[in-house]
Amino acid sequence: MRSLFFRLFLWFWLSLVLVGAVFVVSSPFLTRTHPHLAHWERTAGERALGYVDKVAEALEKQGPRALDSLNSRRRMGRGGGPGPAIQVFDDSGREVTGLTVDPEAQRLASRALEQGETMSQRRGARHLSAKPVIDPTGRRLVVVGAILRRPNPIDLLEPAVLLPRLLLLALVAAVLVWWLARHLSAPVDALREATGALATGDLSARVPGEVVGRHDEFGQLARDFNGMAEHIERMVENQRRLLGDVSHELRSPLARLNVALELARQKAPGAAEGALDRVELESSRLDDLISRLLEFTRLDQGQLERKPVDLVGLSEEIVADAAFENTGAGLHFDRPQAGEICVLGDEKHLRAAIDNVIRNAVFFSGSDTTVEIEVETTDALSRVRVSDRGPGVPEAELSRIFEVFYRIEDARDRGRGGAGLGLAIAARAVQLHGGTITARNRDGGGLMIEIDLPRA
Questions:
Q1: Fewer CB within 10 A of the terminal residue: the chain, N end or C end?
Q2: Residue pLDDT, tens place only, 210-236
Q3: Strand 436-441 and strand 370-377: pairing?
Q4: 3: Cα separation from own chain's centroid
């Protein structure tokens, strides 16, 4: 029931079927041939004719006395009472019992007299029968009986006849409503797909031309969305270009700074050694930041050289490098029994993703704690899990630590270093490989980050 198409289809279809069902059941044109309706018509007509036969027989035997008896027993009407209304007409069309003439009965009497036989007819729920008769005086008369009897619901609702019609009606309504619901929901689906793609980072996502070309509100909305998406894409592309250009431009003065630093070491006295060491440290940090910016820029271009990559061997190499660079850091790699666990991807980008996650864990872990690295596999995916015993991350900010330049203001703050690029690089690399990266706090403190990648 959550689908707009299904809701539109169901409501329109039920409405059409309901209206059609009422029409089929109530229409005299469609129901006049029902067996139950024919039975109702026959029995009502037989009842009216039965009264007419009795009066006609009395007139043949008793003549005018039968009319006196008839008038004394019942006041004549138009057949609206519970019993039949009887009128008698002579060969000139005059009503001989003194009642107000019923024109419909008079016309039926005239036809019966001309034909010289009993005749019956129905007008709606009113049944009339007319029978010519000759009284003992030789006068030609016509006895007309009218009875009002409406059909019962069962007379109208004949399942054997109604069900095929209702099924045909439901089928035709389903075809028409399917087209209508598809016509209304298709542009919404196209807009939803485009917005979903844009939200996941696909800046080239656009609503297709068949929706854009519509001359209604959906078409206008699609054109507005495409205009917005193009504007966002241009802004982001300009930002990426600026970031890459600035990073490249900073490389040259940084290289000259390092050359000048070495010359200063050679000429400066020993008292300046501490200051020069500090300059070298800051220069190294700046070089690392520029390298990460360039790496993120390359990742944002989305270019991959895919080939089989063993996550176990790759993780083992990264752990060894991290242990060498961070002497004293507790690093434990849990090698799986399965041996190789391969994925199809770009080894350079996958190395960057796992390396940044491990470096992040080492950076925020204490010297007396251990960073655990595990690689495992299931039928559908391969997983790299990195767990530390650092300060963790506030629950409300777990989903944001993979954003570019985002840093936690508390435990993992600016004072402890980092530019907020490492986990963003990891997230982007994993996303390019069709995988996911998630973070959650561990019981007892610390952070656990899991990288899930499709199996090769």
A1: N
A2: 888 888 788 888 899 999 988 988 887
A3: unpaired
A4: 2
The count of C-alpha atoms lying within 13 angstroms of the C-alpha of 108, restricted to the half-sphere facing its C-beta, is: 23
What's the rounded Cα separation, in Å, for the pair 39 and 122?
13
- The domain spans of the chain are 4-28+158-197, 35-156, 203-301, 307-454
pLDDT tens digits, residue range 1-28? 356 567 677 777 777 777 776 666 555 4
Q: Which amino acid would we find at residue 369?
A: T
* Contact residues for 237 (Cβ-Cβ < 8 A; gap 6+): 203
pLDDT at position 153 is 58
Tokens at 119, concatenated? 């005749």
Question: Going edge to edge, which strands form the sheet with 85-90?
Answer: 85-90, 140-148, 126-134, 119-123
Residue 428: pLDDT over 70: yes
Q: What is the reported pTM?
A: 0.49
Torsion angles phi and psi, residue 432, rounded to 5: -65, -25
Closest CA to 402 of 364, 366, 440, 370: 440
Q: Give me the half-sphere count of Cα atoms (radius 13 Å) on the Cβ side of residue 325.
A: 11
Tell me which fold the domain 307-454 belongs to.
Heat Shock Protein 90 (3.30.565)
Into which CATH architecture does domain 35-156 fall?
Answer: 2-Layer Sandwich (3.30)
